[in-house]
Amino acid sequence: MSFIPVEFPWCLAMGAVGTPEWMTSIGANQGGFEKRNQVWEDVKYTYDVSTNVRSREDYHLVLSHFNEVRGRLNTFPFKDFLDFEVGVGEGAAYYVSPGIYQLAKRYGSFDPYLRRITRPFGAVVSMGTLDDETGLVTVAADQTRVINSHAVGATHQLTLASAFSPNVLVGEYVYPTGVTGTAAALLNGQRLEVTAVAGAVVTVDLDTTGLTASGGSIRMFPATAEITWTGEFRVPVRYGADRLPGQVVNSNGQELFVQVSSIILNEVRE
């Protein structure tokens, strides 16, 4: 299976019934008090696109697309006309790995939800290089410094060959690489929060008591909060069934009218 970049016909997508869905488990005790647990970490969408299919021409549009993507086998982009734009203040990104961030759309303000966007469309990012096929943004390191020495303990201290300029701040993050020793796996490629800075000496929130570390270098990247974007996005979906039922129900002498029970498209988390 693969992603086929053939969008579902817009003229039929516009009338789709969209259904965002969370999964929550709810239990109640004998007193009627509830305990609720979030089963899914992310919202998932389902669309019924049958409502706009009325003529034989409409059905043939769907049929052509259905056969091209081989039914349920392949995924494809879908334009959700209820929610396809990202305006100013809505486009965000979250950390994935050093220098890599994932585009997201922000919903709400008190406890905002960041919806992962993997198929941006015409997106403009504030920094970095965007991969339109994944929604990943690659950002080059602002600064890199050689690590002269390490001091292990309840917090890990790194003495650099020279201080960052401008220097890293408490609460920001640094990313070590190339470190050797028994603490290497805890340091290399990790996102470590800075708890103290004194010139070229940087302390991070990592317990390395009893371990060893030497060498390597350390990088700074722009803060995730600085990465914003605007534009559109598409939802990766697949057909919900390998069959596409349809029936001619009426004719006005020139045009055949078609009825379909349902055509379901399911969002796919890739």
Give an overview in words:
The protein has helices spanning 10-13, 56-68, 184-187, and strands at residues 17-21, 24-28, 34-38, 44-48, 76-78, 85-86, 91-97, 100-107, 113-116, 120-125, 129-131, 136-138, 143-151, 156-160, 173-177, 192-198, 201-204, 217-220, 229-233, 235-239, 247-251, 256-259, 264-267. It has 270 residues and is mostly beta strands. It has three domains: 10-82 and 235-267, no CATH class; 85-139 and 226-232, no CATH class; 143-220, Beta Barrel (Elongation Factor Tu (Ef-tu), domain 3), CATH 2.40.30. The longest helix has 13 residues, at 56-68.
Secondary structure blueprint with pairings:
Blueprint lengths: L9 H4 L3 E5 L2 E5 L5 E5 L5 E5 L7 H13 L7 E3 L6 E2 L4 E7 L2 E8 L5 E4 L3 E6 L3 E3 L4 E3 L4 E9 L4 E5 L12 E5 L6 H4 L4 E7 L2 E4 L12 E4 L8 E5 L1 E5 L7 E5 L4 E4 L4 E4 L3
Antiparallel strand pairs: 1-4, 2-3, 4-23, 5-20, 6-19, 7-8, 8-9, 8-12, 10-19, 11-12, 13-14, 13-18, 14-17, 15-16, 15-18, 16-17, 20-23, 21-22
Features:
Elongation Factor Tu (Ef-tu), domain 3; 8% helix; elongated; 270 residues; mainly beta; 3 domains; five-stranded antiparallel sheet; 42% strand; single chain; 3 helices; six-stranded antiparallel barrel
Distance between the termini: 12 Å
Number of separate strands = 23
Strand content: 35-45%
Helix content: under 10%
Q: Order of strands in the sheet with the most strands?
A: 13-14-17-16-15-18
What are the low-pLDDT stretches, counting only 5+ consecutive residues below 50? none
H/E element sequence = HEEEEHEEEEEEEEEEEHEEEEEEEE
Q: Count the helices. How many? A: 3
Radius of gyration (CA) equals: 26 Å
**Domains (count):** 3
